[in-house]
Amino acid sequence: MPHRPARYDVLFEPVRIGPVTAKNRFYQVPHCNGMGRAFPSSMAAMRGVKAEGGWGVVVTEQCDVHHSGNHQREIRIWDEKDLPYLTRATDEIHRHGALAGVELAHNGSYVGNLESRTIPIAPSLKAVRGNLPITARAMDKDDIRAVRRWHRTAALNARRAGFDIVYIYAGHDMTLPVHFLSRRHNQRTDEYGGTLENRARLLRELIEDAKEAVGDTCAVAVRFGVDELMGPRGIGSEGEGRDVVEMLAELPDLWDVNLSNFDNDGQTSRFSDEGFQAEYVKFVKSVTSKPVVGVGRFTSPDTMVSMIKGGTLDLIGAARPSIADPFLPRKIEEGRFDDLRECIGCNICVAGDKASVPMRCTQNPTMGEEWRRGWHPEYIPPKDTDDTVLVVGAGPAGLEAARALGQRGYDVLLADRRRELGGRVTLESRLPGLGEWARVRDWRLTQLRRMPNVQLLPDNEITAEMALEAECSLVAVATGAQWRADGVGRSHSFPMEGLEGPAGTPVFTPDDIMAGRLPSGRVVVFDDDHYYMGGVIAERLAEHGCEVTFVTPDSLVSSFTQFTAEQKRVQRRVMEKCAAVHTSTALVRAEPGAARLACVYTGRETVVTADALVLVTGMVPRDELYTGLRAFGEEALGAAGIRRVVRLGDCLGPGIIAAAVHSGHLFARTLDTAITDETPYRRENVELDWDQPLPASSGGAWGRQEGQGHGR
């Protein structure tokens, strides 16, 4: 067993937080997960695995205190009916010796209350966030008293559910306490508006109410965004952000500080480095004696120690690193640094939550599957067959399949046609801003090279005939996919006109760019993929000296990155790097020395000069090996000892890296990737409140009572 160097001992010191004590300095801050009250068993199991992994504190996502501030995809604590599944989460957390925290929240004008249909409330009259045609009404004094009452009741119910830490959430420009603080949201002229002391009144009252209600047994924490990165227009760490902390310094038991809004707090590795928030939050410890927790996508134990010893933080906060590796604290404690599965900062976890589905993780394929599939991030059942496995393709799917199969004890051959392993991860990590994505490859190769039962075979082009002679009973084809050069994608179902013939404008794909085959001069990048690839290709070409025109049929650049909380940064980067950006525009035809574009709404066409085209459209699987093996027929395969041939990752269905890793892990667990007749995971049961009768049918337009019928 490796030994932990003494310099990391500081990370395992207990920390007193009001009336409770965290066993170490590892603190899983509140984070959303797409599970919430729709998937409460998945939520509870996921939190429990974090506690098992050594996190001293595990906090829920935001927990709505009332139906008038209803964030539909989160958990809630409206009344005692919500306690059973919350208690299930605290039981899972406590079972492993961690403290359980809950982030109480009322979202005010951040939500439209589409479920409850209650008119939202706000400090002052305000249109709700986004494009919903809903206006939040200005709160009167009765509303303010009600909000205080709802929070107090929620705090009492949280204690009943077993929580040790109760949050007042004043961050991310999302909740009523911060809306009252903000001059943008609060134009009141009474004692809750005007001066900062007045605007902070509600936050102070909520903290005091919680302390009075549960402070004898539960710690009361404040989560506060100290800087909105808006300069004088918003809260800033050198202005009112600092003033608020100084004003309320000793009132809560803990300060959880970060940036606001979430797009700033949860920046991807494409736009920020580890510990990027330190410069904004480092002042907090100088103005309060209470413990301080902050985040910064911390994965390096040395960085964590520097945060503590340098006086920036008392507790190492993490959301995304705890998702990528729920056992990060335990691995550091045991000195197993090579086993740390570091977050790559891609925010696919955020995308799952924003899509209202159980979140997933590029690095950790078990995330979201702890309860429904029974997957554990560290443990996997030993092999239960006598199979030997040939995995062809050492990209993300093949690497994960070989790693997990090797962990199970299977004998595995992992072959790849390239000398350098990693497949698309190796290639894409060389594109602008994606360097940390190489961790997907590096962690798996580190694990594989320690496994005597796994043989790595780089620089080996495996043919169907060679696979027959490999003496393996399972063949997993993970040969990836290639980008199309014919323009077929979301906008074009058939090949684009003008791409054929030697006299046409040269056409490139992302595969060409990643292989170092770059165009020159005036280049049109047509992005019909809508995730990161079009933007980073454009950036790469601009760095190469090309004059880039960026074209996309969508109304936004890289629109899927709205889900990964980076779209505005992506679009700004593309607009800065490119000579021109055309949204809501399709490339409809290639012409010699030009590209014909058309508005997707009006069809109005324009022509732009182009020395080359780069098509970021669709992908097709490289499945020739799979089809070649299947062509031999079952009898020939059986005679060679092969009982199953499967496809993994992009070879099965081109997608994101996280999907490829999950596909490889699924194969390692089940030895197959085929669709089954039975649902392959557990589902939540719908609990009906049988004490409440269904409303009687009134007939008419809404239904007819038994026996009415139409009769004609």
From TrEMBL:
A Pfam family reported for this protein in Swiss-Prot or TrEMBL: Pyr_redox_2
Source species, domain of life: Bacteria
- Please list the residue ranges annotated as the FAD/NAD(P)-binding domain: 388-626
Q: Which cofactor does it need?
A: FMN; [4Fe-4S] cluster
Instruction: Print the keywords alphabetically.
Output: Flavoprotein, FMN, Iron, Iron-sulfur, Metal-binding, Oxidoreductase
Where does the NADH:flavin oxidoreductase/NADH oxidase N-terminal domain start and stop, copy by copy? 11-337
Ranges for region Disordered = 689-712
Family assignment from sequence similarity: In the N-terminal section; belongs to the NADH:flavin oxidoreductase/NADH oxidase family.
PANTHER family per UniProt? 2,4-DIENOYL-COA REDUCTASE, 2,4-DIENOYL-COA REDUCTASE [(2E)-ENOYL-COA-PRODUCING]
The identity of this protein, by name, is FAD-dependent oxidoreductase
Name the species this protein comes from: Streptomyces abikoensis
